[in-house]
User: Fold these one by one.
Assistant:
Number 1:
Amino acid sequence: MQKAIVLFGHGARDPQWADPMKKLQAMLMDQLPHVNVELAFLELMAPSLPDTVDCMVQGGVKHIQVVPIFFGKGGHLKNDFPVLMAQMKEKHPQVHLEATSAVGQWDAVWQAIARQIVQQSQ
Amino acid sequence: MQKAIVLFGHGARDPQWADPMKKLQAMLMDQLPHVNVELAFLELMAPSLPDTVDCMVQGGVKHIQVVPIFFGKGGHLKNDFPVLMAQMKEKHPQVHLEATSAVGQWDAVWQAIARQIVQQSQ
């Protein structure tokens, strides 16, 4: 498995919080059978993003795409996340490590939300 | 304006964090011109959910639908949110106040996210 995706979420105390991310993971594993899809968290849940990336690199992954599962662009994405990415790139210079924008920046996501709300309001 | 929707998010220190929620608000105001759509936050940002609901009730709104803009079902949705809803219902018994499930429970949202990730991975 040379290519991998990390779904990177905030994390929470309640284990159930991660269930939708696990569902997304299952959907992606189904649609991208040749890509390794794992979860990672900023805080309160394990594994951390660096731990997940370390494991993938040890497993021979050469290309890692991190997808931040965050709605808004606040301190976590502006400050914490770039620092983590820089540290991981420095640690694993041989790996192609990149990040997409956060899902909250994707119009299609808000369009899907708006569609549901409009349907429920009529 | 007798009907209203409150987009209820977590909140953050960085004002830019709320931008996608404001975009959703604009989309909904466009698609539901007869519904009052406002934002409210659990913490770190104003207005709070009770303040927004109080204002709406003062403005004559009779039906309020709260949409939690949260990905996961953790302590905020399991504990904080039901307490807020119960307090508001007690304070405004004449108003029909209801909540949808959180957007993170909606399959269409995760399908939209998966679709984008798959497109970006190919």
Number 2:
Amino acid sequence: MPEINADRLLGDLYALRRIGEYKTGVHRPSLSPEDVRSRHWLAEKLTAAGLTAELDGIANVFGRDRSPGRKLLMGSHIETQPHAGWLDGAMGVIYGLEAARTLGAGIDVAAWFDEEGWFGSFLGCRSFCGQVPDAEIDTAKRRGDDVPLRAALDQAGLQGRTRVQADPSRYLGYLEAHIEQGAELELSGDRIGIVTAIVGSHRFRIVFEGVQNHAGTTRMARRKDAGVALVRLATAINDRFPAIAHERTVWTTGQITLDPGSPSIVPGRAEMVFQFRDTEPAMLARLGEELDVLVAEANRGPCRVTLVRTGTTAPSTMAASFQDALEAAAARHVPGKYQRMPSGAGHDAQILAGIMPSGMLFVPSIGGISHHYAENTSDDDLVLGCQVVVDAAAALLAG
Amino acid sequence: MPEINADRLLGDLYALRRIGEYKTGVHRPSLSPEDVRSRHWLAEKLTAAGLTAELDGIANVFGRDRSPGRKLLMGSHIETQPHAGWLDGAMGVIYGLEAARTLGAGIDVAAWFDEEGWFGSFLGCRSFCGQVPDAEIDTAKRRGDDVPLRAALDQAGLQGRTRVQADPSRYLGYLEAHIEQGAELELSGDRIGIVTAIVGSHRFRIVFEGVQNHAGTTRMARRKDAGVALVRLATAINDRFPAIAHERTVWTTGQITLDPGSPSIVPGRAEMVFQFRDTEPAMLARLGEELDVLVAEANRGPCRVTLVRTGTTAPSTMAASFQDALEAAAARHVPGKYQRMPSGAGHDAQILAGIMPSGMLFVPSIGGISHHYAENTSDDDLVLGCQVVVDAAAALLAG
């Protein structure tokens, strides 16, 4: 099997880290000056690797192999979460670049725009898969500073370019490597994760409407306290979901707001942002039903409780052939030190899997940390992960 | 008994409402331009009423009677909560002005600075009672914009003025009228409330420390979710306090913050702002013990829970002689249409009661609404309340 160039791989990862460096991590919001710079840096690297490089009309970066025959598409994303890690996304893209250089032919590389959701949800890979109408781009704004996507694309000189659309006949499939972003591999002592499926998620805003009142003069018996209704429902979810859930089902209340949020005022309104994730559609449906029941129960109290669905992503299964190719390569390099596992985080591969066979490989995250500048993976694991992916890619290309 | 001038009383209330008018209410933060303007407006009114008017070094407004003999001190405050009601505070001050004009002698009037707590806790009346050291003024900043109190006093031209100190030998006592800010009077059909005691309050910040993590990749069993710990404790309080509390005991969680507050991140830190109130010291102590028990129970979970006491006010009892004088006056004007009741809200009178006999009268709040621009009281109730207070003041002055 062709051997990767470990120094070249690590050198490129280190170089990319310096664009928008923040402490030991990186801050590259989508279409920030640093993000735009990193896309051009990548295009130059892809060109130097012999590929035809292009930034498209939604800031996806492509490197296309000019040789004949069907290709394997490899990649991930290069923008980051705020003040976050250096490998989240970047690693999978540079693995693609290294695969192209090592194998010489058969590899297309993609850095999908905005996997981190600054402007929306998976805009880059969804655009490639034909799922983003122009109207969605017209209204998208960057979280934090509300810059319109159109203005940001214009400033980057990309406005008016065509958005590259997938030609599935060109591809054998899509292969993405990523840091695990969890502690499963580290806790089990494994060095490679082979993703079986990517979880789907159901996301909600739950709104509680009561009556705002003075916290000193309003008897408990007469209150319609939206905050009390909220903590009761949140507690009920935590009491009832475990009886339904599998070991890997997760649910999270990430945000709570009491309105007006003043120490001496009974909250008249409250909101919680809630989500649950699982790889099985049946489990997601069952949790959704239970949530409906709990909200109906909450509505028998003094406040009005409304469940607003803000987003749903379906689980997606990785292709068996891709899982097998990755496992064969892992077994060769680190026998007994790999596992098949679901991905609890979302990835571009979950969108690509809708139009072509897809596979994902994980490398360990030290301490399971991600979305934080302390995120890291050992150099040994970075090199091993790339070699396993390149071996699997070679095997898949060889049929 | 001397009769008040209803048109003059209502005319002054309407005029004061126009300074900082917001919808049907008023927005006059302490030492905002509007607040300063209203203090000078009041000083002119006090002067016109024959009193010696003064703004002191902490923006208290005083109108002093120049006739011999002991005085009754009457007043309340004139700054407001944000975008709040036109009568909360202002009514008691204008009642004092009207009492001075109606009785001709024996009434001193005060508008206490910052009862609404923009810069601290009861700064104006506590300064008058000798409870505010200079160091407290040095560090006080206005909530919302962090303007230092010293800078705000300087801008108002009050920096360097002496702060008037109470001379208890001058006074028979302190008499304050206020809107009820609750619905007790309206619900019972009564038109006058005679305050028996003002509740004490215990105020807390409760801090939950867990571990921040990815909401997709961190199994439930491994999480230390600070938000889950918070909603569990808040629910436990709501489950356990009712068994201890009296009918009028109240407790409130006014604010909840999850950190970082992102939909897909397990909160690593959370805070709730919590308080309880009662008129009985023994009840306050009992609730404090129960809270300690619940926090200790919460600390057996995966997160660290810390109870930070942010403030305590002791309950204060209104003087029996003042209650009797108010009741006699109420019984004369609206027989059977008044009640003795505790005050669930804090008032300047709770501080003044520490140095002189004090009494309070309530008028009904329409719909029990307060701290909102919709707060209101009927003109008939405004006139009646003033006449009852002036009768009681005359009786107290007559000995």
Number 3:
Amino acid sequence: MAPYGSRLVVPVDLKKKPWEQELPLHNRWHPEIPPVAEATTGELFRVEMIDASGGAITQNYTAEDAKHADLSAVHHLSGPIRIVDNEGIPAHPGDLVAVEICNLGPLPGDEWGYTATFDRENGGGFLTDHFPHATKAIWYFEGIYAYSPQIPGVRFAGITHPGVIGTAPSMELLNIWNGRERDVVENGIQSLKLCEIEKGTDKWEKIAREAARTIPGRENGGNCDIKNLSRGSKVYLPVFVEGANLSTGDMHFSQGDGEVSFCGAIEMSGFLELKCDIIRGGMKEYLTPMGPTPLHVNPIFEIGPVEPRFSEWLVFEGISVDESGKQHYLDASVAYKRAVLNAIDYISKFGYSKEQVYLLLSCCPCEGRISGIVDAPNACATLAIPTAIFDQVPVGPRLVRKPDVFKCTYDGNLPITKNPSASS
Amino acid sequence: MAPYGSRLVVPVDLKKKPWEQELPLHNRWHPEIPPVAEATTGELFRVEMIDASGGAITQNYTAEDAKHADLSAVHHLSGPIRIVDNEGIPAHPGDLVAVEICNLGPLPGDEWGYTATFDRENGGGFLTDHFPHATKAIWYFEGIYAYSPQIPGVRFAGITHPGVIGTAPSMELLNIWNGRERDVVENGIQSLKLCEIEKGTDKWEKIAREAARTIPGRENGGNCDIKNLSRGSKVYLPVFVEGANLSTGDMHFSQGDGEVSFCGAIEMSGFLELKCDIIRGGMKEYLTPMGPTPLHVNPIFEIGPVEPRFSEWLVFEGISVDESGKQHYLDASVAYKRAVLNAIDYISKFGYSKEQVYLLLSCCPCEGRISGIVDAPNACATLAIPTAIFDQVPVGPRLVRKPDVFKCTYDGNLPITKNPSASS
Amino acid sequence: MAPYGSRLVVPVDLKKKPWEQELPLHNRWHPEIPPVAEATTGELFRVEMIDASGGAITQNYTAEDAKHADLSAVHHLSGPIRIVDNEGIPAHPGDLVAVEICNLGPLPGDEWGYTATFDRENGGGFLTDHFPHATKAIWYFEGIYAYSPQIPGVRFAGITHPGVIGTAPSMELLNIWNGRERDVVENGIQSLKLCEIEKGTDKWEKIAREAARTIPGRENGGNCDIKNLSRGSKVYLPVFVEGANLSTGDMHFSQGDGEVSFCGAIEMSGFLELKCDIIRGGMKEYLTPMGPTPLHVNPIFEIGPVEPRFSEWLVFEGISVDESGKQHYLDASVAYKRAVLNAIDYISKFGYSKEQVYLLLSCCPCEGRISGIVDAPNACATLAIPTAIFDQVPVGPRLVRKPDVFKCTYDGNLPITKNPSASS
Amino acid sequence: MAPYGSRLVVPVDLKKKPWEQELPLHNRWHPEIPPVAEATTGELFRVEMIDASGGAITQNYTAEDAKHADLSAVHHLSGPIRIVDNEGIPAHPGDLVAVEICNLGPLPGDEWGYTATFDRENGGGFLTDHFPHATKAIWYFEGIYAYSPQIPGVRFAGITHPGVIGTAPSMELLNIWNGRERDVVENGIQSLKLCEIEKGTDKWEKIAREAARTIPGRENGGNCDIKNLSRGSKVYLPVFVEGANLSTGDMHFSQGDGEVSFCGAIEMSGFLELKCDIIRGGMKEYLTPMGPTPLHVNPIFEIGPVEPRFSEWLVFEGISVDESGKQHYLDASVAYKRAVLNAIDYISKFGYSKEQVYLLLSCCPCEGRISGIVDAPNACATLAIPTAIFDQVPVGPRLVRKPDVFKCTYDGNLPITKNPSASS
């Protein structure tokens, strides 16, 4: 008989604060953050994670906690996990670590999540100029499905995934990051600091001073927010330090492409069951540097076979002309913004407030595409929404239906206790 | 018995030049270009189209024609087609025209296409800094499949679609376009002029002077290059002039999201079978202006049910750090560029030249996604390639395979006469 | 430049009777029916076909023609086509012929079809005890879609395929067929004879006497009525005579699993574009005899990538207890009958007559599954119906809807001229 | 805040025997088996289940336990669960209970299963004439994936589902069952008796004497073995007794259509998370009796949205001619047997023993279809296998590959400890 089941290598305790966990979490990338666990190639191991806010954003039906969220602390990652092969030899810089996500989900007993927007002055979001105030929706999970009292008439199967998964950077790579981001990162984010647990020693002071934030995705993977990195997918991560030092966190029950509201997936606590391989020398063999140093690489991944199947999509176009009518040259970000705004307006005609739709499009399994990127001067982006997520609202397609059959409003702050989909 | 089959409203003759066609084509948008045909709501009608280059790019195995392509003439559109209802009342400004694409394909007897890049000085493309020279691949169609002697080892089912479909702008909208594009459009494109057929009269001189180029997608639809606008899909176009004046062209046997090489789909001649409805007052009821005037709208569409089904995808990430290592702030265009470059490098390890892969990713059914657009400072874009397009090359997934089993090179200009996939 | 497009090897003229076609058709299987055309491996060739009834069932809105259909003549096949390799060497007995269906569709200008039931005394059908009278529905095609004035509220994309595709049997195999079928085939079918064209000569008398009917599928493929043998699929057929002698016919715009009404797909004229390979010695290498001789084999095939995508299915179960309450032992045919009857009753609650639903389930892309075949004494079969085929009728799923919103009746014979879906 | 998560209404303890469980299990259908739990409409509740053999078939690498399996005891069901509405009013006979499967899976800590065949004399299976001896394969789960040391080179995502789900029959329905099955059920199965726990009292003697076996599916649902009844699906069950008395069991990690080897899915312990609705009077409104009494109905269900996505299928045909060459008249069971035998032979050419393939086709997500059921005298059935389940073996499609690259044999009894897929 073979062993089976997964070995829990990083547990979390949701009753404790992020800095009270038995195995310390971390919210910065740095080569000297020591591994808290080890996993061997071929074994199935389990990693548990707290939610992106570390418990700061709660189940209360108010957006006050989102309004005052401390963005300097978000993304308490589980790990680092040192990856070694069957003979105990660790992954080396230049190797690839192939990480297969065999299973994942919410933590048992904690089957809920939230989607929020931040205040414009405290992090904002993709459409913060249109939605400057903090709002929040709570989602409850019924197995594969999620529903929200704040956005009634909607229920959908999530494509659950970790927002953050990555390896530790080498010092050289970290220096590249810190160098190039110095000028563009906004002040509010630059001033973020390591969380409490890492204080005290000289070493931690050094790490806190040098380490990179977990907000963006980078060469090591990181906060890529790729919504299809779900069950059965496999990501090939470059190794920059001995042991690879794999970290993960920021679990999403579901997310739309772009995660437009920023705190924008259905954020939750959760677990991953992973299986790793080491591909010796794989970084050189399979990846190609896209910049001045051999470190300028990006991960590759394969999508798993069990995503929800949707057959009917309603698609909104956007071009790179902004809301003031100004032309931007082949700018896919502007085009996508326009597509999202169009979708929000259309769906709001069916009885939702725009705040509700903004939250919804940030977290439902909608697809954001770069359709045309060469037809000067307009980039064309599209946002495709699977109509099956609306379980009571007749939002297209096939018939253009009269948008008057469903009415609900929610400004992101009002308590709503009735769950309209509970009886469906 | 009911009538059946489609009525041919715009025929083309591939033996004639664009300006010799019986029903004049047009390559500009202008409200005063007169309709050449009429279609009634509910009837199935057929529109034929010449290829994007108007026959200038030929089946010859050389990129010389792509190199010297006259971009001022591309997109000879078929139409305008005036849309009227069952009682003969035309579509009015403020209505929506719902256009269903019931069928489409190459023109019988002309089952081939091409994918090309332009010279950097003559139009360029998304990666023109990396691929500054004109290249070309010829594709032959075997029913739903396409293969190219220039890119052996690849054969795939296309998601065929029109690159351009749109309604005529009103004078007010045209003025908005001309105003906002004045500063950002490059000189080479701005100097484009109407093609020969439209010369001579005072009216045509006026139109030629005022009309907008067909290169970008805009409020009227236009060259959106949405690769999923295929069989069974339905697009809701705003109406700006009486009769809607629907035009279409630039047929693509297949295209990748972004159409990165610019002349970048599998360009071909072709036909559409369309069915229209008029939604009276629909523009106000279903679309929302996203700018300073009520004209700042964008079309909505629904995807059809018969796209090729792919189950295994290899995905490349890109972040908004450019090839020089410079940081861009949440720039999805830069992130997508990086993802495409990564994919090109990876696939070129399997025996292809980078020119071959650039052409391939521009025209195969790959998906370009905006994965993260809020995680400052990096946008994260992904390019997903269905591995089934490789019929002989072991490009992932599931095993990281040794990239040494397949060798071929093609610099975009060399004649290759053998069709390696013909015997498969 | 390479040649492209397909070579027409078997044309048909729909204005002529089956026995007046330039290349003779045939409606029996016999090794001595001479090839009418030849195709070379690797080339794309086109075969045209008349409809299953040979024009006897017409577009008239009456079931009189179905009532008096001459089943002795159905399935006028196009071919045989002799298959040779690049050096002109024909396929040999013991080889496999791999036939790829690159494209197919209705014949241009003949975009309509019919679904019918026969009288119980003249062929019947799967549920002839419940539906003993001839009925008929006419379908009109709008590109990928079909709709019927007789079954309003329904419109769907077909999975178009040839009902019959097969190779000629050897004399030895033909003798096996004639022997084993002698006792089980009903009288009415046994008395069938070759059609007119084959009369006159001694040789034809011999063939007419010996040849097998095209009704059933057999070792050579034949009338397998596999609804997924559509665009992009590839069937591996055993070769029993020199040249393989490939024949095909009985085109279906769409069919449900089982083709329950017998004349039960959307029958139409049509064309195939095929590409063949010869796998030398493949019959022995890849197939295994399942009976007393090496000839007892069955074809293998691969499904193509462009079938319509449906996401929501309503599924009806059936067990092997018949309508009288009698138990049958693990009988999948009885179980499937029960599942189909259940589906007919359910859908008829939404305003349809049972005759309409019987015709619909015979021709729409529904799936018939053998779910349990071992749980004595009940086989369990299921019929799954994609709910998207109903474009106006709220037939499930997700909400159990009140079945009172839609009313229409049709007894299979009444002229109905209005097309309710034309305006959608 | 709303409550969330599921309420455990039926726990099981895998360390205990079936008859030692805290809440008694049952392996017969009878109206008087008392409910062990209650669930309210709209609430999410959790049911745990032991495996079909009740622990008799173990993880040992020998088929001895399968050989001596006591079929009189299989299917220890969890329940009955009494279903009541929000006001405490139970489901009544004539209602429908809509049961949504929100989630399911193996029991934590017990992530393994088995597929077995029984001896011909002890239950047999669909192909018992060809495979008369007991065999067994053990499967280990890695999240969504399963692999078996006994069938190397295979790894796939399961479509997990309960084999048995049903409501209690009324006495009238039970009498119908017992009457009609008396003559056809084999002796060995007829002699089965209730398991130990139910012994002792007069009432239990009566129940044991009258109750129906759980082996077949029937009007109440039951052992339908519908492999698509997975996450997100919803089954509408008729109610025959007050409270509906819902029971479920026989969890399958994965099963092929037909479950051909009889003990044939990947059998495992597991859990369901369910949500019920009561549709008052729904039995009469939505179901139609298909026999002499109003009780002759069958359930309806809807398939969920998260089944594994496969794009490439290899399909084997079978016709209703048996292995001796004898013709059967439109017999779908014979046709399916032939299709399965053909598939076994084909795949065994790639290095597997036939016993291995028989087990594999019984439990992998293959599809069994009734393709033609009217083309006398041959029914045509097909078996479609997703080629992606083979992770190392080049079993089709697209190229007919030489079947010599992979060698392994397993007679169903030999211990094999190496897991060839562990390193993939």
Number 4:
Amino acid sequence: MSAHKLDVLAIGNAIVDVLARAEDDFLAANGMSKGSMALIDETQAQQLYAAMGPGTEVSGGSAANTAVGVAALGARAGFIGKVKHDGLGKVFGHDIRAAGVAFSTPAAHEGASTARCLILVTPDGERTMNTYLGAAQDLTAADIDAAIVESATITYLEGYLWDPPAAKEAFLTAAKIAHKAHRKVALTLSDAFCVDRYRGEFLELIRSGTVDLVFCNEAELKSLYETADYDTALTHLKQDACEAVVTRSEKGASFISAEGIVRVPAYPVHKVVDTTGAGDLFAAGFLTGYTTGLEPAESLRLGALAAGEIISQIGARPHRNLLDLAREGGLLS
Amino acid sequence: MSAHKLDVLAIGNAIVDVLARAEDDFLAANGMSKGSMALIDETQAQQLYAAMGPGTEVSGGSAANTAVGVAALGARAGFIGKVKHDGLGKVFGHDIRAAGVAFSTPAAHEGASTARCLILVTPDGERTMNTYLGAAQDLTAADIDAAIVESATITYLEGYLWDPPAAKEAFLTAAKIAHKAHRKVALTLSDAFCVDRYRGEFLELIRSGTVDLVFCNEAELKSLYETADYDTALTHLKQDACEAVVTRSEKGASFISAEGIVRVPAYPVHKVVDTTGAGDLFAAGFLTGYTTGLEPAESLRLGALAAGEIISQIGARPHRNLLDLAREGGLLS
């Protein structure tokens, strides 16, 4: 039996974010659904980029942001995801390694260019995402390094990974390897529209025990069970999932397990600047606590702290030292 | 006589900034002089990039930042500078046009890649810059569109443009065209080390009247006249320059002309986050006022406001609406 070399291995789309400010009118004129993630092709990506304002490029990708958050909180994180060997691909690889995350998935030398997500941040801090998957489409089961999966306490998969067709197999391969090595598998539902695209398959993954721990926010949970009533959806989730974390923005978050529900309030935030990465960093905080032996309530608080910090700044990768903040908050020693 | 189609035409190095946080120790270990700009070659750029932390990419370049600031304040700005037709070159072109600046310099299809500046931001907010000039080296006199220079009330040149050898000729060509069309020419001294490299040539540009208006900060002014005494340096500048703007960080700024000296205090800043672009945005505010008919004191105040805003955020391109801030401050209507 191998030693646990990683606390959290995240597998997801390797994406560089291009953030720009936009007014609500711009979203309406371009038919975008505020707060959600839409998939776009290369032509649409070029058209939208030409129409949008000046950008800031920051490495992103939902699961990759979570891996960076885990490393920032002092736990051992790894990432598997596909970039091309191009300018943005080099930026992605540099940034995730410089953040202390183990990343060794080989870059593609042919095919589509590195994925990018055009993110429009409205004056209320809400982000609306438009993703061109590019090279991320080409993640396959061959990219799943069994030794790395076996070495991780938990393998964390993003629901967005269900969009690139070949990545589904990579996802299932990773889950199988993890379980065979008696490790846990977590899934984030990613986005209410993503849930809408794959409701049946996600429910099957949860009910079959392919995933042990589910992360979702209120909108995703309601979308999963096609109900407008939060309590109804929560009751279904308690029946279907082994363990789950549900986040509700300013209403706080809950951890559900066979032992019942643990709730914590949201972290106080002075001003919401940009909500990009809120869910990713909540997962990072929770997983750091979960894999390093904290109680569920403490893990939730660590998630709330990381999420509160990320929405107080621009972009989904932390500017300030998360470990120092967690220590100041008495959550980590 | 052509109409003034532009208020300010800025000519400089077209650069994409890569910003990363760094501790003071990192600067010392890499032999960097804090707060200054050093030129590096491609190999050094790769080595430094590999060693530095996760980055944020934002279009930059000193004169380009000034052009963006002028446009953000509601005046008409243009930019001339050289990128390559590569990923970063497209980012630069998109961002400056999306900011409302006229930019039509053709991108190079061969040769060095688009210039980048690796900027290390220390906890005190000070930035230390390492520039790989790349394609910016290839700006030549052929890139100076006479009709554009003739149409601009003032042509603003950055001292850094004296580094790429071929750009010197472009610089002098632009100054000649501007003066022939009875337009003004401004020069920023850019950096104390830059002044040290070209002291004799810069003094000649100023004394010969090749430039009408000089921008410098205290360190650059002292370097120009090789004195540690501010008043001595200022006396020399009054003799040599037709008009000049001298910025002194928290000590405020002065405008020098044949009519004497006008002084204004610094703009109150809550917290200095990143000083990148402070001088560039001061110039933007001053030039906006200067070319649209404000009094020198009002132009200085507009410069102080723009500089104060840019050091309160990360990067040298404004996140907030500068025109709204200037209106709230009663400086523009």
